[in-house]
Structure to design on (249 residues):
């Protein structure tokens, strides 16, 4: 049960002048990622690209030992995110005009021995989902002020959708303080479909919309990616939209 395949798509959307999203598909390492440069901040695209490049370089060296059982997936993912953070801060130090640049990131790492498990780490509001038996489940919770308000019962979900602070992050790569990712593990079943996305998708589509389109794709990652991005654009495409869909062929 080792053959998991990921398909990624990214679109500039209909309102933005540049694409500040980036993604990574490393099927041979069973590692996938999405990063979303912080909108309105200088160098958001560079921050996202820097984070993805740092993750790729580090993973190529250290993913193998994790698959062989010599180190723990959670520690591996925490290290990848720390490397991405240091790469962003280092570049901003060398290029002062990039000071303050930042990005979200969500990582998916599948370990198959002794049984398949999805390990998910994230910072910010890029999300991970799992589709199983016709039902979509979120695997991450946004690091935003709104999510904090929802947890405390200050806002309802309906009020949160139009709240002016709905996209203010409480955690992100590039922030000068230490960045602590949330990391969790989820056992996998053969027919599971996994999804990573930037908030350009979730701004436009509710979870039930994502579920419906993924079901319609019948387990095909290419069809799912194309359908999700097309629907986000059809509903206005307010932001860059990036989707990575992972499934077992």
């Amino acid at each position: 049960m080792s053959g998991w395949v990921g398909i990624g798509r990214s679109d500039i959307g209909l309102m933005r002048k540049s694409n500040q999203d980036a993604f990574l598909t490393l099927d041979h390492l069973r590692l996938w990622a999405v990063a979303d440069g912080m909108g309105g901040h200088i160098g958001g695209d560079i921050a996202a690209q820097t984070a993805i490049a740092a993750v790729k370089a580090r993973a190529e060296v250290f993913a193998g030992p994790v698959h062989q059982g010599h180190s723990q997936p959670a520690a591996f993912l925490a290290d990848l995110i720390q490397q991405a953070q240091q790469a962003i801060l280092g570049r901003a130090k060398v290029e002062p005009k990039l000071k303050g640049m930042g990005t979200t990131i969500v990582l998916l790492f599948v370990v198959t021995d002794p049984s398949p498990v999805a390990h998910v780490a994230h910072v910010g509001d890029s999300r991970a989902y799992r589709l199983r038996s016709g039902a979509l489940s979120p695997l991450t919770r946004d690091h935003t002020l709104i999510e904090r308000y929802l947890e405390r019962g200050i806002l309802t979900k309906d009020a949160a959708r139009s709240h002016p602070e709905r996209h203010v992050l409480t955690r992100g790569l590039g922030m000068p303080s230490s960045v602590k990712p949330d990391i969790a593990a989820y056992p996998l079943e053969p027919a599971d479909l996994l999804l990573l996305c930037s908030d350009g998708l979730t701004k436009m589509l509710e979870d039930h919309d994502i579920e419906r389109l993924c079901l319609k794709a019948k387990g095909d990652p290419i069809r799912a990616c194309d359908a999700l991005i097309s629907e986000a654009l059809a509903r206005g495409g307010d932001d860059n939209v990036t989707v990575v869909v992972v499934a077992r062929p």
User: Anything to note?
Assistant: The domain at 5-247 is CATH 3.60.40.10 (Phosphatase 2c; domain 1). The first strand starts at residue 5 and ends at 11. The two ends are 10 Å apart (CA to CA). The chain has a mean pLDDT of 93.
